[in-house]
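re the bet — no i am not wrong, look at it urself. input seq straight from the record:
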Amino acid sequence: MAKNDDNLLKKIVSHSKEYGFIFPSSEIYDGLAATYDYGQNGVELKNNIKQYWWKAMVQMNENIVGIDSAIFMHPTTWKASGHVDAFNDPLIDNKDSKKRYRADVLVEDHIAKIEGKIAKEVAKAAKRFGDAFNEDEFVSTNGRVVGYKEKIAAIEKRMQAAIDTQNYADFKALIEDLDIFCPVSGSKNWTDVRQFNLMFSTELGSVAGDASTIYLRPETAQGIFVNYLNVQKSGRMKLPFGIAQIGKAFRNEIIARQFIFRMREFEQMEMQFFVKPGDELDWYEKWKEKRMKWHKALGLGDNSYRFHDHLNLAHYANAAADIEYDFPMGFKELEGIHSRTDFDLTAHENHSGKKLQFFDPQENKNYVPYVVETSIGLDRMFLAVLSAAYNEETLEDGSERVVLNIPPALAPTKVAVLPLTKKDGLPEKARELINKLKFDFTAQYDEKDAIGKRYRRQDAIGTPFCVTIDHQTLEDNTVTIRNRDSMEQVRVPMEEVRTTLEKGTSLTDLLRKN
């Protein structure tokens, strides 16, 4: 069952600012809603997540290559993709509070409350039956839980029908029937539901007008599709093959909330896999399995992930699923895997007048490939790592520490080198070591405060290893290596430090689990 721990999210927000992971953007000007800046530790963690994804996706697959397409694209791109006409959110205003909401989010929040009731029933039953408790059997047979699940299914079906048919009158009626009230005013005095396009628009060049209107891209996928033929020909690619990209995207979200989970400026890691028509569903299942394996290799907890298969598919898809992660606010989408058929390439063919086809020498004919997409939000992945890593521990001596148990391969700093004192040649010996290590590892030097305080600072930013230089080091060239997670300290020759770090922070070992 989902966490739904608002207190944990507040702690993560506070910790992120205090220790240089994430700052509110433009904070000296009182900030800008739903925009954030990644600090000195945040940018390192973010880059390490990118590297893990890129190496697993591109370096480890001979038939997948990467590109970096422009944020600005010809405006017809977004006409062809459907974003100009159909990239809308249903909005509703409360007349008393004057606050604006996404209608679907209001309904989803109502569903979350029902899911909370299910969680309570499960928790009570688990306590009552103990080790004999079978959760799967309970949720499928308990009358009250089954009733809650049926209610959720009915709400989801009605909401999806209202979205698909653009029946916004029934969408409003659904909100009224569910007795949903404004979180601010507490009233149910709603306006009609209406559409709002999520794309940011701007002017290209010095003359304003419709002809010069362009958009900030709302997704990175279209940059891959319009470059399909360039990559295929220049790389002499044969089906199946993939094109990967990491890049910024922009959506004018009305309700941007829950820290970095939903923002107006965010980063995506996407891969479009081009396949022969008819093979797409096999590849869809393979990529579902591969992507889940990539996530679980990090060791954030196998039970923290689940698949959510889409019953109501987008018009361009013939299969779709989300990998959901158990964030502090419950299970939410982390990554999407979609079988997009030939919708995108065919649409760009029609609007551009250029053929975007593949010549199959075995069948001696041209055809438009089908596409299987994997798309993960980098910022959401960052939040998932932080959520799993944040721990408050009470130690044997009664003291407490806050530690980020970040997977060592992703940790912002891999090693801290700490001279025991600021004299007797210890700083010089520490500098000697760090100058050797920094070619291969992100390293910090710290000589301020007692050694215990320095350990706590490194725990709080997730540094997996601390190396302490003391007076014995000057005698026999040995150092103390402290492990972040176990807090064990072992004495090793200085020349073995590199080997310990390579073994303990290896991205290669992580990739082998994929």
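see?? The chain is about 40% helix and 25% strand. told u. also The mean pLDDT is 90. so pay up
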